[in-house]
Protein 1
Amino acid sequence: MTAQIIDGKAVAEDVVEQVKAATADLVAKSGVKPGIAVVIVGEDPASQVYVRSKGRKATECGFHSVTHTMDASISQDHLLTLVNQLNADPAIHGILVQLPLPDHIDEGEVIQAIAPDKDVDGFHFINVGKLGTGQTDTAFVPCTPAGSMLLTKRALGRDDLSGLTAVVVGRSNIVGKPMANLLLAANATVTIAHSRTPDLPGLVATADIVVAAVGRPQMVRGDWIKPGACVIDVGINRIDAPEKGEGKTRLVGDVHFEECAQVAGSITPVPGGVGPMTIAMLMANTLTGACRAAGVEPPPL
Ligand code: NDP
């Protein structure tokens, strides 16, 4: 079998097109323009690249978009004051504080200071709790698992995953756990695996849906995969690529793509799978925040 390659770039573009259309509609009907504020602290080059692309995508969607670039030496109090100002700003419907923050800042305190109804990253305890109790209609769901879930449903051609088993490898708060909750909310029978799980290959081999969010390059091998399974690779790892020339590198996922694509029914590539979905879902979450503020039903994706 050769797997269907799940085109995350195309699905992300489709999401962004829907967000653009719904934004134009919201502005025309209610005068509410979705607003997103991204806060970045310090000079981390990777974070700056992410923040710039978020800003560009927000503008493309027709949003009001502001970026607050703060010096790495900013105090905790100063940062919390900024978050509180954004919480109170009616033009802002989504607040994202780019992680990681410098060591002297208490990341948890900053995240919990964001108003839950503007927490488009979905990391506030209120949103985590809503997702955990199945209240996905009023929660903000973290963007990477939300995007992974949309790819899963589109690949399988169904929203209801009743009768299917899913194994999520990884139990982080930002990917593994919320992904497991989303699969459960869609009626899959879900197992979460982690570094202490015995016989991981044997467990993965039972799954109709495999989600890998581990941070270990190409860990999931072809002979772990149940024939026909849907494989969602969240991992982004940079590895040496001497075949491309001296000192060159390339991106790979947590799944050995070439091997698994021979066995799976569908599979996300890296890059071009889950990666592009994260920013698209951030735009969708911001639109959702604006719709809720305007008392309008957000469009279904
Ligand atoms: P974390 O490091 O927070 O979590 C990794 C998880 O994998 C942990 O639960 C850990 O288990 C588990 N794990 C580690 N080694 C093994 C092993 N040998 N066998 C089984 N489980 C193992 O990572 P994240 O969840 O933040 O990210 C996971 C991957 O997803 C990374 O490659 C990251 O770059 C990528 N990512 C991609 C995003 C995107 O936009 N596409 C966004 C976010 C992340 P334990 O808990 O026991 O330590």
Protein 2
Amino acid sequence: MHATARAGINIALVKYWGKRDDAENLPAVGSLSLTLDSPGTTTTVRFDAGLPADRFTLNGQERADRRVFQALDAVRAHAGLALRAQVTSENTVPTASGLASSASGAAALGLAAWAAAGLPTDDLAAQPALVALVRRASGSAPRSLLGGLVELDRDTTAVTQVLAPQAWDLRMVIAVMTHQEKKVKSRPGMTLTRETSPYYAAWVEHHAADLAAARAAIDARDLDALGAAMERSTLRMHACMLAADPPLRYLSGRTLDALDAVEALRADGVSAWATMDAGPHVKVLCHAADAARVHQALIDVVGVSEVLVARPGPGARRVGG
Ligand code: DP6
């Protein structure tokens, strides 16, 4: 009773920030993201009659992570299983730096546990119990169950593939600003924003229009229209966070320098569009043909510690036996 699964991180083009139900981790807004081929997480789950308790190891270090054990409980409840599990994860994402490691981690864990328990893995989006347990671990993670451009619906919380990874030759160029953990994790950050930011209601109210614009731009394969909706969404999210009390600021000076570099690329005729999550890193969406140029422009930003070029990737899948 064991299985190994791999999932790539996903980067939201139209952001999720805020919950309408904390216990079930239901989002206050929908979201639309691109799943990447790497970095990501590979996780093995082994249900074993000899284990007295669940155990979780991440990159060789034993961890007591409540969300991991809750996901295992949900799989056990669904499969009618009592066995404890050994979970072994390898992450190639800088953990907790705001680079979406929780999304690839929760998707890989959910699928590995689901498969190890003998549950069906042919159409992941059609398994609401799997989608729900992955969402409880991390609200952005169900999007990593599917490949390419993926939408998470606010009301049904279902995930749907909008465009397959090979259908549009895009790149996501990621400027990593720091390997330090983020100051405020998403969960308390979302609560603080909802409870204290006077801009929260406006964020939620205008969100559907950004989603619709992004969907239309994808249909038309119009990167400039998609990029404009993407930058609007991230800047509105950060404006809403900055207006919280106390203010929630994930962006650093280097983030703004990178945004200047992206604007300069556009002035030079390169279709390059930026987005930031709950951290200072800048992710730039561009055509494959422009990736080398965008990569160099981000390396030239002083203080950027690493620049990765990622392709659209597949959804979470079983690997090995
Ligand atoms: C800023 O999935 O980390 O990356 O649901 O509280 O676990 P929880 O949050 P998480 O949210 C990440 C939000 C974001 C934007 C996005 O990915 O849509």
